[in-house]
Design goal:
By secondary structure, the protein is of the alpha/beta class. 43% of the residues lie in helices and 22% in strands. Strands 3-2-1-6-7 form a five-stranded mixed sheet. The longest helix is centred in the middle third of the chain and has 28 residues. 41% of the residues are buried.
């Protein structure tokens, strides 16, 4: 889809392990319109361990060393290229107002006592940092929100009930061919709060 001439367009990303759901949203009208929805790889699909670079096995941390450095570097390089390519494509369609980045947690991994949870937090931090840095390099301001706070924050920002927001998100995604799951809805909501 093409954006309208004087649109309010933003992109939303929902960060997952090794990938992100990306949604380009036009908020020019009372009801936002999905211009694009896709899966963006942050980890290299040809290197399975890059999806969970801090994991050596189930619940076990990878030793700090050359392999960990290689995998983290691979995620940074591959993810930055992948996200930047999508953003450049979107910027050809419209001037973006910003990027909404939806994350599972904002906790500093080093404050977590459980080794296994700390591993996941490090990976979450790595993937969100890659997306945020790619967006900022493209001149976008990022608004970061935790998934668990998303609907409450959106209700305040959009001045709508959570039920009304959920209904609108379901309706605007009906015709998205690539699927319209919770990740896409969250990404769209992150973008919607920017274009409101």
């Amino acid at each position: 889809m093409k954006a309208r001439a004087k649109e309010a367009v933003a992109v939303g990303f929902t960060i997952k392990s090794g990938w992100a759901a990306a949604v380009l949203l036009d908020g020019s009208d009372a009801v936002p319109r999905v211009l694009d929805s896709r899966h963006v790889a942050i980890s290299d699909p040809d290197v399975a361990d890059s999806t969970q670079p801090y994991h050596a096995g189930f619940g076990t941390a990878r030793d700090a060393g050359d392999e960990l450095k290689r995998l983290v570097s691979l995620v940074k390089i591959y993810g930055r290229k992948s996200v930047t390519a999508v953003l450049r494509e979107y910027q050809k369609q419209a001037t973006l107002r910003g990027a909404g980045v939806i994350v599972g947690s904002l906790i500093d991994p080093e404050t977590i006592g459980s080794d296994h949870i700390r591993i996941h937090a490090r990976e979450g931090q790595l993937f969100r940092t890659v997306v945020i840095e790619a967006a900022e390099t493209q001149g976008l301001t990022c608004s970061v929100c935790r998934e668990r706070d998303l609907y409450a924050d959106a209700a305040k920002a959009l001045k709508k009930s959570e039920a009304a927001i959920r209904k609108t998100l379901s309706e605007i995604g009906r015709h998205v061919e690539s699927g319209w799951r919770a990740e896409q809805k969250a990404a769209a909501l992150g973008a919607w709060m920017i274009v409101k």
